[in-house]
Every structure is written in C-alpha cells, then in structure tokens.
Amino acid sequence: MDTVTVSSLKNSLVLRSTTPLQLLSKKQLQQLNSLSVADATRFLSGVQLKDYGGIGGLKTINIRSMGSNQTQIFLDGIAIGNAQNGQVDLGKFSLENVDEIALYNGDTQTLLQPAKSYSSASSMYLTSNTPTFENGETRKFRAGIKTGSFGLINPSFLFQKQINQYLTASISTEYLNAHGHYKFRLTDANYDTTARRENADIDAFRIESILNGKIKGGAWQTHLYFYHSGRGLPDAVIENRLKPTSPELGQRQKDRNIFIQSSLTKQFSRYSYTLKLKYANDYVFYSNPNIIKLEGPLKNNYHQQEGYASFANQYLITPEWTVALSSDWQWNKLNADLYNFSYPTRFTTLVSAATKYQTERFTLQSSLLATFVQDKTKYYQSPDDKHEITPAVSLSWQPFEYPTFRIRSFYKNIFRMPTFNDLYYTEIGSTLLDPEYTEQFDFGFTYAKTYHSALKFVSLQTDAYYNIVKNKIIATPASNQFRWTMYNLDRVQIKGVDVVIRSGWNVANCLNLDVGINYTFQEALNATTINGKMTYNKGEQIPYIPRHSGSFILQANINSLFLNYSFIYTGERYSQAENITANYLQPWYTHDLSIGKDFSLLKQGKMRVMTELNNLLNQPYEVVRNFPMPGRNYRLRATIDF
Amino acid sequence: MALRLVIILLLYSIAFLGCRKSLEPQPEEGFNFINGLYLLNEGNMSMNKASLDFYDLSTGIYERDVYKRANPDVVLSLGDVGNDIQLYGSKLYIVVNASNKIEVLDARTAKRIKKIDLINCRYITFYNGKAYVSSYNANIGVDPASPNGKVVEIDTASLSISRTTSVGRQPDGVAAANNKLYVANSGGYNPNAYERTVSVIDLKSFNEIKRIDVEINLHRVKADNKGNVFVNSRGDGHNTHSNFFMIDSQKDEVVRKFNAPVSNFWIDDEHIYTYASEWSNINRENSFVYNQFSSSDLGFEKKYITDGSEKSIHMPYGIAVNQQTKDIFITDAKNYVTSGTLHHYNASGKLLRSFTTGDIPGHMVFYKQ
C-alpha cells in the first residue's frame, strides 16, 4: 500500500469517530524526532506535555487542561496504573516497541472494552508491535542503536518468531544510558549566563516478551514486561546553586516495574467476549542525601501491587445495534516505609453498560459506568466507600449526501478517585477528600476531501469544547510550609478549540509529502468560589496552560530518503495561579529536523540510518519553571532488519 | 466552505501567536531609605521567589521588590526561600535558606555588600559585633552524615565566618543573652523523634554548655532586654499542641509555660505580641488566635486586634511592632502560592492600611537612618 492509501484508511476511522480521535502511526512515530512516547505526544492537539527536562526527567500529559490524573494510559487495552500518585511517566515508555498511539477525548469507539476504558476523561492507547510475517518467513530480527547528545547510548533488539500458524512470539529488549548533562542558558533583561544541568544521569533496562495466539473465532495475547532504572533527580535551578558542590549530593530514584498481562477475545455469530488479566508489581526507591535524619540520609521505599481482571461482552442485536456489558475488578496495595503510614489497599469494581447504533450516516453511542471503591487501611481511619454512576453519550452524523463531512458531539461526566498520595501521604490524614469530577461538552466536525492533483487529500477535525473540573484536588500547606494537606477546592472552567489538519501530497511522482497542522486554544479559568473560605485569583488562567499552542509537521519521502521537519509552539503561560509579571513565562517554540535513508541489505535485510537535530535555533526555554530544557541537541539512529 | 473558514480562523489565530518579548535592561535604582519597615517574602520552595519590600513609614509608600531593583544584575535575584532578616548597624542581613547564603546589604540603599555562603541556613541574631546563624547541616569536621546541625559565628567587620559549633538536630531560632546563645533544636526531619531542647552556647568558648529540656519541635527563640529568653514549640499536629515558654538566662531553665499556642511572636519591652495558627483535623480548617502576653504580669492576656479585621487574614505568617508608635504589622501568606498582604494596625489595634506583598511575606525588621 502506498502512503496516501494508508493515511486515508486511518483517516476514515478518525473522521467517523463520535469523539475526537488522534492517531500517530508506526511510520510517523519512526520518523518523528522522538525518543519516548512522551516526545511523540507533543504532536497531538490539545495535549500539554509537562516535561522537567532531560532524558530522565519526569514527563506527564495534561489533556484539555483537566490535569494529568484525568488521562488514563492503556497498553494493548489494559490500563497502566499508578495508584500511588496517578501519574504515568511517559518518558519511561520507549517508542521502540510501540506501533501506534491513539488519543481519545471522551469514550473510545469500540464497545467490546473493559469497563476501565470508560473510566477516565480522556485516554491514550499504546499498541505494542504485532509481528506480521510475509512470504513464508518465520523469523525477524531487528537491531538498533541510538546515540547523541547527553552521552546517550541506547541499543535495542527485537526478535519475532512464528512458531506455528497459530502462535507467534516476540522478545524486545533495550538498554539506555546517558550522563544527561547539558548546558542551559538563564536569561533576563539584565543577565545572560550559562550553566550546566547535573545529576541528570539515567541507566535503564527493559525486556518484554509477547506471545500472540489465534484460536477459532478469536485471538489471545500474553505480555510479560520488566523495566529497571536508576536516575538522578536534578533539583530546580536555584540561585547560588547553579554549580552543585558535588554531583553525588543529588537526589536519586530507582524504579522497577514488572507486569504480566493477558487477554483473550472470542467471537461467535452475534456474541463476542474479551477476558483480560493483569498483575503488576512496582517498586520505587527515593533518596535525598541533603536531608539527614537520625537514622541517616533520607531514603524511602515504595512497593505497589495491582491485580486486575476484566470480562467484557458484546452482542449484536441487529447489524446496526450493538450492546455491551463489561465488568472489571481491581486490587491495589501500597506499602511505604514512611512515618505514620497507613498501608492502604483499594478494591475497585467497575461495571459498564454501553450501546451503539450505527448506520452509514449516523452513529449514536452511549454508556453508563458504575464505580464502587472501597479503601482499607492497616492503621488510622480509611475513607467511606464510594459508589458513583456516570454517563457518557456521543454521536456522529453526516448531514449531507457528501460523505466526508460529519458533525459530532459528545458529553461525558466522569471522576477520578483521590490517589493514595492524596489520601494518605500527609501526616494529617486527608481521608475526607471527595473524588475530582470532570464534565465535558464537545461539539465538532470532521471533513475530508481527496483530489486528483499534486494535493492528494486534506482532512480536518475541529472541535470546540467546554469542560468543568469540580472538586479539583490540590495540595495546600496547612499550618506551615512543611505540613501540607489536601483540599477539594478548585473549580476550573475550560473553553477550548482543537484544530487538526492533515494533508497528503504527491509531487512529480517521487516526492510524497505529509503536512499537518495542529492548533489549540484554551481558556482555562480558575472559577473557585467556596462559601466562607477565601479564594484567590478567580477568573485567571490556571498555571502552565497556554492560551495558544500548536505544531506544524512536514514529512517528506523521496524514494528511500525521508525528511521530517516539525515546529512546536507554546504560547505565554503563568507558573502560578496569579497572572502577574513575576509568574509570567515567555512563549517558546522549537524547530526540529530529521533526515534518514533506507538501504537494502543482502537479499532480505533492510537498514535505516537517521539523524535528528532538535531545538535547531537553540532557544532557551522551560516547560516547568526553573527546570530548563536542553538547547540544540542531536541524535543518531541506525536500525537493521533481517 | 468549512475548510476555508477554518483556514481563515487558523491564520487569524496565528496572528495571535506572540513571539518572545525582548526585555529592556533595567538600570540599578538608587534608593535612599530613611525610616521604614523591611519585609522579606519567602517565596515557595524551588521558585526563586524570595523578595524584599520596603514600607516607608514617613511617606506611607510601599515599594515592592527593592532587592531586584537595586541589584538587577544578580542572576535569579535574592534566590530561594528567604528565611530570616535582621538589621545590625547600617547593614541588613538576609538568610536565604534554599540558596544556602546570607546576603549582606546596605540598609539605606538595599545594595548588596557581600554574599556569605552557608548551607541550609535558618535564623540569625547578633551580639557584641558578631552574627550567629543556625544551619541544619553538620559542622565541618563532624561526619557529614551526622544529623546534628550547627551555629556559625560571623564577624560583622570582616563579614566572614570565624567559628562554628555543633548543636542538636535541625536547629531553628537563635537568640543571645547574658553572653550565651540559645538555639532551638527542632528535630523536624524526624517526626517520630523530635528534639525537645534548647542548646545553650557559651559565647566565649563557643561550646555548647547545656541543653534545656523544653518541649518537642521547638521553633523560634527571642530574648528581651531583661535577660528573658522566649521560645515557642510547633507541636506535632496530633496530640501535642503548640506552646510557649520563658527561659531565665541566669538559671538557664524554663521558668514559665504559657499553655497557649504560639506560632510567632514579637517582643516589645514587656509586651509579647503573638499569633497562633493551628490545624484542626476535626473541623478541617485552621484556627487562629492573636494574643498579647506580658513578661512581668503572669495573668495578662488580651486580644490586640480590636476591630475584628483579623477575620480577613487567611494565614498569619509574620508579626512586628514599632517600638516608637506601637503600631502593629501582620502579614498574611494566604495559600502560600499567591501574593500576600501586609496589614498595618495602629497601637489600639485598628486596621489602618493593607498592601500587596510578594509570595509568603514572613519576616520584618524596622530601619531608621
């Protein structure tokens, strides 16, 4: 298939979706200037990547200003959890073994899904590399290496084998090491100085194995994953501490993540089901040698476990009308060697009922989700049980004969539970916290047109939305700065517009171009009013949300040569709730460029080499205040397939 | 149609996409402060937002951010978490905790004279031409992994550290009386094992000679002009409440326990102005008291804000009383991440004026040329 056809196919999925959907395909992912999943999300509309800088720096996403805890990340349809703080560090997920990234606002389009997939305001689906074997081959190897700035060394290896016609197996492994140092510029009207980011080293290893099987009328998958890393946690850039006295005095973190997950899908004539199982075991070690306690420098160990089972059913009543019923059960446990820790365990039961009516010109989908949450603690009080029923409804409609113009709209009401950190981290319990609710209203249209000229197609998605976040959970110091407490305080009202334009070009028969533009407008205002309690900065833009942001991507292919140029723009922002000069952050924009070439090797082998240049104009910028981002940097990549 | 409309909208919005503003370099401002109140704003940790304000008590003009304006070339300005400010002679000493330094300024112009490095420095006091500063970090020569903190002596003529000595864990407030230094050991890094003593240091030998048992988690120490030393404790937020104590520097023992919560206080002769903010886990809110005590009259206790305006204070964080006018100054740190307020009350406790400050206004000192 040529590029344009593939794009069109993907487009039809995007265009018919009742909720906004954005996709990054394998081809795009391989050509974009990205090391991790986090880097790739910069190219999605409506997404703010919170990046503390450097290869090892924490990277989380905030979609449509609702906060990073309102987005659920799924790997092959099963949620990646973090019951401790709800944050999934996307910098830890390599693109090496990812085939596709899909971002949904609101519900996804497939009904045969775990109830969990209905349980967040927005969701990002990562799809693992699925082996495909052609022309009678039964095994594939891929070896790759990335190197470049920050002392990066990143070899990876993939082996896939077709064991028989029903069973394939793959092993993917990767090692990443970098000293992480980089120079950064600090500028102000009166000074311009250069310093070096230190204690930014990382050493990470990943190995995972996937078994894919086919059965009569269905398929199954088992995925085993292991990740280990050790890294420095560079401090904020602090006056008089630009040159650390000694690099080993930095804070350190070790992570170890293990999971095994399996799924089975089987289809009968009208009925189909999916069974999913997961067990995850995560460990985090944190040390701060600057805080010397009675027993020595501060060290904390966190152990988390998760057990998960889901049973999803779907039934086709008529060819147009589908219903689905899913039930999930989840168990989370956190142990930490903190003083006065309560050792919480959480049991979550989710039941979802969904229905979809779909004709050629009209799709209506709706769902109801029932959530039951029970927390148990070994010490101190645990909060009351919570149960909620939340709805979502979405539709897509083709109003004219013209097939590629569609109107869509969705409404979704959902909440997130307070995380273990929210409830149990502080010395003073915050167990009376309420869940954080979001309500989303979205109205948009999709449009596509194909041409018989150099311009092959144009597609367009535009959505206007209004979101309300209620009972936003925020941390506030209680009686002094060292004793924080968690409140349900803020209310945020978000009005936004996302525009996504894609176009495909074919010039002089050999040059294929994909050109994309994203633009996001967001007015995310603090709307907190609490009776009897003082509120501040009402009506001002919430921190770190730019009113205007966007990106431009150009991908060009000339035979075996490919070139990628991207421009990312983030408008002016404020680092705190108060929109004053002291909190003002300048807009930032980076130009990234990459160029690569494919070669044939021997009879069946392929080789690809690629160079990336990032932040071409060497702009000094910060995504998070006092966490400077790298200036101009480069990467070299080479992969061999055989 | 739709496509064209969107392209027009897009071009329209691109016109809004601002580029970076180029900033004009600011010239150094030449202040000539004569009579007023310096206020140090802490700024939340990791924000580099410590700042210095000056309230001119003669003109009533409130000047914001005078350190940056007088020293615009200092990279990242005053730095991170301003923890204490004191005046000695014609110089202003600012202890900047996370920036590991003490800034010495000309109090008339707010211009920097010198920066003295001291890791994790906390509070400062003066006695006979020397400054004494507490620090959470271990004394050099002691095992760097020792939990004990230290106190350093700074010669105010050479502005360099002359002597250091070890004290208890995480020492905070310091005050001098009777040729001795009193240091509050908090032990705040170990909520399971708070310190509960005041270290007494003989200023001649600069050695710890005694530890006075007071209460867990001690915070501030101040001495009056009669040789009494006052210290408050933070409590633990569970069973032990904040409290307030008086130490006699002749006997070096606690002679009075006030049995009243005190978060911060200011001594004006025998009058002790205090406030307390305590978190209640039952009501899930802070409760505040603004009490005045007396060092000579045991039973004396009164509310010094008389017009009910203390209800508008969300988080009291600093207190000062003018020795001449007896006017009272209280700062409000609000939610710690937004601009604070300085409230100016007259001697009879009525609110006169309020000013917007920097983030977390906390520490004040009067200056008169």
TrEMBL record, chain A:
Keyword Membrane: yes
Record-given protein name: Outer membrane cobalamin receptor protein
UniProt subcellular location: Cell outer membrane
Claim: Transport is one of the keywords in the record: yes
Domain of life according to the entry: Bacteria
Membrane topology term: Multi-pass membrane protein
Pfam family, one: Plug
One Gene Ontology cellular component: cell outer membrane
Record InterPro entries: Beta-barrel_TonB_sf (IPR036942), Plug_dom (IPR012910), Plug_dom_sf (IPR037066), TonB-dep_rcpt-like (IPR039426)
Major location category of this protein: membrane
One GO term of the biological process aspect: siderophore transmembrane transport
TonB-dependent receptor plug domain location: 17-111
Keywords (A to Z) from UniProt: Cell outer membrane, Membrane, Receptor, Signal, Transmembrane, Transmembrane beta strand, Transport
Organism: Olivibacter domesticus (Pseudosphingobacterium domesticum)
Automatic annotation (TrEMBL), chain B:
InterPro entries to which the protein is assigned, alphabetical: DUF5074, Host-pathogen_enzymatic-act, Quinoprotein_ADH-like_sf, WD40/YVTN_repeat-like_dom_sf
Record-linked PROSITE patterns: PROKAR_LIPOPROTEIN (PS51257)
PANTHER family (UniProt xref): DIHYDRO-HEME D1 DEHYDROGENASE, PROTEIN NIRF
Name of the featured protein: 40-residue YVTN family beta-propeller repeat-containing protein
Upper taxonomic lineage: Bacteria, Pseudomonadati, Bacteroidota, Sphingobacteriia, Sphingobacteriales
